[in-house]
Automatic annotation (TrEMBL):
The keyword Lipoprotein applies. SUPFAM superfamilies: Band 7/SPFH domain. Keywords: Coiled coil, Lipoprotein, Myristate. Gene3D superfamilies: Band 7 domain. Residues 114-190 form a coiled coil. Positive regulator of hypersensitive response (HR)-like cell death. May be involved in potassium ion channel regulation. InterPro entries: Band7/mec-2_domain (IPR050710), Band_7 (IPR001107), Band_7/SPFH_dom_sf (IPR036013). The gene is HIR3. The keyword Lipoprotein applies. GO terms for biological process: defense response. Residues 5-165 form the Band domain. This is Hypersensitive induced reaction3.
Length: 287
């Protein structure tokens, strides 16, 4: 109906290409325009100015010979002031962009190892964007953004990478566990050493107290009982301790069978052995 009335409507974010007798005449902005068909003028087509997106999936291989699928997302739009170039110079815009993306990705990714490709996605995207911007600007298109949205290696490669990562983490966990056990053992050894040291101090103090007690007993007995020598007092003390020991062995429910010489002569022999040992120790200390 608009063509019969020599009028045409152009929607928002769209431009129309007007021809006269098959030759480009002008670019029509959004709105209503007079189109006298009898003068040979007609609308050859419309061109959207909206932002468009093209997802390109490209298979290539890395420097370490791993095949990957690189998924690139290209956001582009036609320029209003170059609408005639965008309409006439390219017959299939999406195929042209895809060809440039394939060319750049297959030239960039083979220079990188697989791990580097994951780390340098931004550099790959920048290289694709620069090449597209340089090529597509001549055809009236603007490259707004280029994104490398995914790099997909083969399933077996991904499984191997996960196993390598898991093995590294298990090794680190084993090292941490060994360090923890080492610290526990060191602390336990330090605790045992400290306990033995304190036990030794206790035994030394106990023996010192026994010696001090015996000395006081000998001195007190010698003073209170005239004519008694230190030897007599020591013999009596040893006999008393001997019978106390025998009493403890007999009273203990967990005591084993113990065979020792018993009698006044045996006690005298034990006293003699102790006294001889003390005398020998004193002699060695003097020399």
């Amino acid at each position: 109906m608009g063509n019969l009335c020599c009028c045409v409507q152009v929607d928002q974010s769209t431009v129309a290409i007007r021809e006269q007798f098959g030759k480009f005449d002008s670019v029509l902005e959004p709105g209503c325009h007079c189109m006298p068909w009898f003068a040979g003028k007609r609308v050859a087509g419309q061109l959207t100015l909206r932002l468009q997106q093209l997802d390109v999936r490209c298979e290539t291989k890395t420097k370490d010979n791993v095949f990957v699928n690189v998924v690139a997302s290209i956001q582009y739009r036609a320029l209003a002031d170059k609408a005639s170039d965008a309409f006439y110079k390219l017959s299939n815009t999406r195929s042209q962009i895809q060809a440039y993306v394939f060319d750049v990705i297959r030239a960039s990714v083979p220079k990188l190892h697989l791990d580097d490709a994951f780390e340098q996605k931004d550099e790959i995207a920048r290289a694709v964007e620069e090449e597209l911007e340089k090529a597509m600007s001549a055809y009236g298109f603007e490259i707004v953004q280029t994104l490398i949205v995914d790099i997909e290696p083969d399933e077996h490669v991904k499984r191997a990478m996960n196993e390598i990562n898991a093995a590294a983490r298990l090794r680190a966990a084993a090292n941490e566990k060994a360090e923890a056990e080492k610290i526990v053992q060191i602390k336990r050894a330090e605790g045992e050493a400290e306990a033995k040291y304190l036990s030794g101090l206790g035994i030394a103090r106990q023996r010192q107290a026994i010696v001090d007690g015996l000395r006081d007993s000998v001195l007190g007995f010698s003073v209170n009982v005239p004519g008694t020598t230190a030897k007599d007092v020591m013999d009596m003390v040893l006999i008393t301790q001997y019978f106390d020991t025998m009493k403890e062995i007999g009273a203990s429910s967990k005591a084993s069978s113990v065979f020792i010489p018993h009698g006044p002569g045996a006690v005298r022999d034990i006293a003699t052995q102790i006294r001889d040992g003390l005398l020998q120790g004193s002699s060695v200390a003097k020399h």
